[in-house]
């Protein structure tokens, strides 16, 4: 199948540092190539991909040192080019929210749009009402809730390259791991409280965004001066395998409607169980009592930690391989693409 | 003529506080109504206008307290609605940069797009190359420089309602005025140095944006503890008439490619001369030796201050009325609209 993947231009594909959407597009494009498809990737020129790259900007926007940039103009130019070449592809798969809608109204039935962010923003419902002809994909069922009426073709969970974060049969650490950003909705304070309640050490590998520096300084930093808590800053992919693989569990104490939560499946890839608060996608990602525990509060989390020895790290890894590899994700998308070619997109449009 | 004006949704039309583009759209829409045209304004619902308002959002985005908003989705929804109703209008006049291009490619020859911002951003040239069929209007000739190749139909300078800021024949103040934002490119430090060189008091009426608070604290605040300098913070429209009308001159010591510089004509409306550094639009807005002086450096500014008594405040006001009222601006736009109806847009498209 001839497939175009259209990535955002904010981060490299995959990102040099953080950045979720461009990372998934990178994994998906490579996995589709591995499945034998003819994949063209529209992305910034610093992409590393097995697909055919169409560079839409000399480099990704966020780390581009140019003082004056227009992310909107850059994306509009890319979409202009995608449309010019649209006839070359069987399916066009967009990852740029809804910016492409005005460009592809006539070709909507052979497009797929994966929405990567939270959807409970004030202005979204009106916009998605206006373009019902575009088949949408959610990354969790929970993510759809603010836009139930929209034209959902399916939910496709994220996946990771199978060998990116290797299985660790015997972890060396005996600590709880917190990985991500220090921010109020990620609730590192809950992870710290859990360490105190259980007596287990907590290691925090997290970046502090500029927007969250006051929260870090006022709410979290005072809690770090404690022998149980170790703050190790930001880590890269290599550090991540080590950090997650050696943990007794990943703690994911979020307090916001997480659309997916990539770090949960990163832990599972290492065989590490997840203890996560019931929020957003969490119950869809964790197999309760198999890959971890979904909890409702701190007491629940303490009880879950006590039950960690019941879980099998090998079985966690098996579950990861069955549900969350990039190949699984790519095969699921191929099913949807094939449906579009059979007319599912047109059928959706008529019923929308 | 049936004219649609399409405003940005960031600020109310006109803005409750600062905000240049929405202010000009408000003045233009009302002036076109006064000239007898049938004007429809697409804008946020908190607009105050004599045109027929099509509310595109319940309120302007920036001051909307909703925690999660999408300015992009809001603008796309508005443009979807404008396109749905496009057949009702002779001319569609856009003030939303280039976001409407993918919507109106077929109708481009009866659209007009006024660009309100600086154009020396990295991603703009590629985008404007791709949509040459859209007739553009600049707000100064200088503004065009980074995009000389683009499809320019004309330059229309901004205008103010004639009676908004009344003429003050005899100013009471004897001070230099600085009005705007405290930021490195506005160079309040130059205004302060000029006060020291001339011995004239300087009054600074300016807001400090969050982004500029370090600049204010480190570079400007230490200079304010001086009997010659008075910092009076932000002022509203009523305060502006008083502040500008009683000044000996407005000092406009900018150090960036200003696309227009509304405050210069606000001063002229009061009969107050302008001493401005040669930058961006400045030489196009000031009639040298009539409404003020264009200078190249601090020495030039000192010399200009010495020559202020040569200028006639009445003649400054007359020049304002001849060049910079909203009616003059509206009549200029009507000429361009009429040209579009005669086919100027199509002709441009063929030569583009």
Automatic annotation (TrEMBL), chains A, B:
Domain (Glycosyltransferase subfamily 4-like N-terminal) ranges: 18-130
Phylogenetic placement of the source organism: Bacteria, Pseudomonadati, Pseudomonadota, Gammaproteobacteria, Lysobacterales
InterPro entries for the chain: Glyco_trans_1, Glyco_trans_4-like_N
Any one GO molecular function term: glycosyltransferase activity
Domain Glycosyl transferase family positions: 175-310
One Pfam family here: Glycos_transf_1
GO terms classed as biological process: carbohydrate derivative metabolic process
Organism: Agrilutibacter solisilvae
Entry protein name: Glycosyltransferase family 4 protein
Top-rank lineage group of the source organism: Bacteria
């Amino acid at each position: 199948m001839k497939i175009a993947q259209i990535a955002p231009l904010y981060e490299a594909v995959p990102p040099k540092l953080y950045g979720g959407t461009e990372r998934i597009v990178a994994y998906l494009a490579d996995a589709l190539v591995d499945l034998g498809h003819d994949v063209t990737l529209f992305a910034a020129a610093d992409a590393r991909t097995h697909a055919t790259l169409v560079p839409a900007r000399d480099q990704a926007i966020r780390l581009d040192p140019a003082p004056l940039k227009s992310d909107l103009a850059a994306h509009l130019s890319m979409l202009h080019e995608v449309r010019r070449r649209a006839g070359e592809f069987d399916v066009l798969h967009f990852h740029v929210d809804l910016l492409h809608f005005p460009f592809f109204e006539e070709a909507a039935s052979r497009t797929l749009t994966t929405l990567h962010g939270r959807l409970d923003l004030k202005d979204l419902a009106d916009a998605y009402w206006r373009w019902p002809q575009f088949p949408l994909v959610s990354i969790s069922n929970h993510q759809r809730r603010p836009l139930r009426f929209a034209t959902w073709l399916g939910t496709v969970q994220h996946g990771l390259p199978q060998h990116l974060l290797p299985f660790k049969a015997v972890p060396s650490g005996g600590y709880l791991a917190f990985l991500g950003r220090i921010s109020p909705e990620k609730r590192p304070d809950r992870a710290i409280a859990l360490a105190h309640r259980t007596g287990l050490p907590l290691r925090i590998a997290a970046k502090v965004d500029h927007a969250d520096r006051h929260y870090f300084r006022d709410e979290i930093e005072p809690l770090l001066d404690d022998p149980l808590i170790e703050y190790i800053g930001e880590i890269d992919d290599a550090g991540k395998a080590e950090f997650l693989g050696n943990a007794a569990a990943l703690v994911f104490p979020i307090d916001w409607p997480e659309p997916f939560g990539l770090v949960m499946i990163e832990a599972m890839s290492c065989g590490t169980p997840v203890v996560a608060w019931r929020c957003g996608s969490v119950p869809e990602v964790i197999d309760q009592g198999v890959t971890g525990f979904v909890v409702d509060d701190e007491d629940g989390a303490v009880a879950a930690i006590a039950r960690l020895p019941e879980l099998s790290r090998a079985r966690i890894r098996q579950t990861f391989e069955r549900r969350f590899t990039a190949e699984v994700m790519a095969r699921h998308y191929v099913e949807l693409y094939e449906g579009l070619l059979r007319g599912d997109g047109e059928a959706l449009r008529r019923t929308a």
